[in-house]
Write a structure and sequence with these properties.
This protein is mainly alpha-helical. Helices cover about 50% and strands about 10% of the residues. α3 packs antiparallel against α4.
Amino acid sequence: MTAARRWLTVAGSVAVVLVLDQLSKRWAVDRLKGQVPIDVVWTLRLNYAENTGMAFSKGSGSGRFIALVVVAIVVVLLVVARRMTSRLQLVLVGVVIGGALGNLLDRIFRAGSGFLTGGVVDFIDVQWWPIFNVADAAVVVGGIALALTGLGAPDDPASDGPDAGPDEPDGPSTNAEVVDEMTAPAPDEPPG
């Protein structure tokens, strides 16, 4: 996969999540703020809330610290993405970054008492879990999926199509191959 295609994949995922997140938050501010929660189905309801803290409304007023953590996570994900060739992993990196940036935008543009002090708009309320938003869901689901797909694990270029890269990896691609390589006799050493 070319570098341009890699970054286009990440950027496209970021853009989709950001647009969905910001449009849904705009709708929540317009339709839910100051209103009675809307029951949807079972325990799911739409209920406007603002969160100036971090996950689960902990650390209220720590927006500046949270912003630094978000920027650090985004930078780490971008560095990790430079080595990825799996389209799925690149999409998931973009989903996590998009979610992180969606909430960071709230902290920047909804700030009332200083830079990065704004509240994040939350509105999805299942009543047995803290209220969340599209960005939160993207970070959590994308992060879990990224972990399950093997963040940092060697990629299989053949799985990404004919233009993905060479057929043979440069080095061992599985743990068994690493062990075999480590326990194999040196080229000038007799086996045994």
